[in-house]
Amino acid sequence: MHLNGISLKHNKRTADSATVPVPLPESVKLPMSQHMGAPCEPLVKAGDAVKVGQKIGDTDAFMSTPVHSSVSGIVTAVEDHLLANGKVCKAVVIESDGRQKMSDEIYRPVVNDRESFINAIRESGCCGLGGAGFPTHIKLRVDTDKTPVDSLVINAAECEPYITSDYRELIEAPEDVLDGIDKVMKYIGIAHAYICIEDNKPQAIEDMKRRTATRDDITVVKLKSSYPQGAEKVVAFSATGRIIGEGELPANKGIIVMNVSTAGFISRYLKTGIPLVERRLTLDGDAFGTPCNVKAPIGISVRKLIEFADGSVDDIAKLLAGGPMMGMCLYDFDAPITKTNNAILGMTEKWAVRNEAKTACIRCGRCVRACPLRLMPTEFEKAYEARDVERLRKLKIGLCMNCGSCSYVCPAKRNLAEINQLAKELAR
Ligand code: SF4
Ligand code: SF4
Predict the structure, then answer these.
(1) pLDDT 10s digits, 337-383
(2) Sequence-distant (≥ 6) Cβ neighbours of residue 249 within 8 angstroms
(3) Which atom of ligand 2 is closest in space to residue 378's alpha carbon?
(4) Could you read off the pLDDT of 387-413 as tens digits, one per residue?
(5) What CA–CA distance (Å, rounded) separates 139 from 156?
(6) Looking at ligand 1, which residue's alpha carbon is closest to its atom 2?
(7) Which CATH architecture has domain 114-272?
(8) Number of H helices, E strands in the chain
């Protein structure tokens, strides 16, 4: 059972690249906004000494999660930082002392019930590691009396071309993934888990099937390789057959969707108490001489990762945080890696997508057929141009997840996904 989608060249040439740690940078920059929701307030000032895992940003806002230092050293600045989405937040700059001394605040959390589990996840600084960045403790804090949740959907689809960081989590840390799943099921009270993997990752599917062969509460779901299988609504439907409607969360349909690397992190955090201070990323694109998977401290600059992958900033015409379909263009080689970055892609002039001249719509309907949610991008475009908010709402612009499939298939090269994003803002 699957929704519409498109076929993309996978380009997963880093699939067999085992994760390697990058050298410790001289400094890191930690933005106070690294996830969906409210930014944190800095808890440190210039001149303060900090250690790895020390909390350096937090807030009382419900929809947020704390930020921890990824290095030991001295805070050199607390300054304004321009995010890739154009917003400005505070960022803490820390000069590393090269010693990676661990904070005294780190302790293995005591978890014995639902509340202590959710509180521990909040303190870990965890947010969705697949790119969306939804604070994990909010996702888990669903009121199961009002909204019974019976299904945990583990998203290991990784449908974006190039990216293999989730695949490496499955291959390198399958016990952590299964332990994280068990902990979420146990403490949130979820009866069944579905581990969803695209069929272009046969080794991971076979391994997970073997490991769960005696479990009747876990199903490994082999997904058709089709973009955007990993989108939340799509993967939830593929696993359970339930449709998440406009304005609904997966929990409204009894589902929690969780990225596979997030599940692995939860297990490691509960065992060690080390918060989210590093993550795995795929470094790829034709501008990199040595494409690879790395483990990097949060806050390291993109420039350092480009150097590590034998790339040169002079060769890069397009720099992306995330995949080529839904990733964010970066304007600054010195931008820091955040909790939600699962890949850095560097494309030379040869592969960077150029703005080809758009022509008139030929009413071929390919964009509608490509849309996994059966939306009508052509009508969005017309309604946006007329600034007709009522029509945009009738057409359910709020459902568009900006997957870019409509733009990708359009023979007239119309900027449909871009218009959809603007139209969504207008409707809001
Ligand atoms: S960007 Fe929106 S309208 Fe276009 S295919 Fe994706 S979900 Fe459908
Ligand atoms: S794919 Fe492009 S040309 Fe075809 S109907 Fe959609 S907007 Fe028009």
Answers:
(1) 999 999 999 999 887 666 678 899 999 999 999 999 999 999 999 99
(2) none
(3) 7
(4) 999 999 999 999 999 999 999 999 999
(5) 18
(6) 400
(7) 3-Layer(aba) Sandwich (3.40)
(8) 13, 17
Torsion over CA: 165, 166, 171, 174 (sign): positive
Percent helix, strand and coil across the chain, each rounded to 5?
A: 30, 20, 50
* 373 C-alpha to ligand 2 centroid (Å): 16
Listed by start position, the domains of the chain span 114-272, 366-427
pLDDT given for residue 354 in this prediction: 62
- Ligand 2 centre to CA of 381 (Å) is 10
What is the pLDDT, as a whole number, of residue 353?
64
- Residue 428 pLDDT: 85
Q: Which two tokens stand for residue 33?
A: 């906004």
Average pLDDT over residues 25-29: 97
Q: Whose CA is nearest to atom 5 of ligand 1?
A: 371
Give yes or no for a contact between 11 and 230, defined as CB atoms under 8 angstroms apart: no
Looking at the CA of 367, name the nearest ligand. 2
Residues with C-beta less than 6 Å from any ligand 2 atom:
361-367, 378, 409-412, 414, 416
The span from the first CA to the last CA of the chain, in angstroms, equals 32
User: At 246, is the pLDDT very low, low, confident or very high (cuts 50, 70, 90)?
Assistant: confident
Task: State the angle between helix axes of 416-427 and 377-385 in degrees (0 to 180), rounded to the nearest 10.
Answer: 60
Query: What's this model's pTM, rounded to 2 decimal places?
Result: 0.94
pLDDT tens for residues 132-187? 788 999 999 988 788 899 999 999 999 999 999 999 999 999 999 999 999 999 99
Ligand 2 atom nearest to CA at 365: 5
* DSSP states of 236-280: HHHHH-----TT--GGGGTEEEEEHHHHHHHHHHHHH---S-EEE
Crossing angle of helices 202-211/165-172, nearest 10°? 40
Token pair listed for 121: 């996840």
Q: How far is the CA of 386 from the centre of ligand 1 (A)?
A: 20
Pocket of ligand 1 (CB under 6 A): 370-371, 373, 375, 377, 400-406, 416-417, 420
CB atoms within 10 A of CB 113: 10
Report how far residue 199's alpha carbon sits from residue 384's, in angstroms, rounded to the nearest whole number: 38
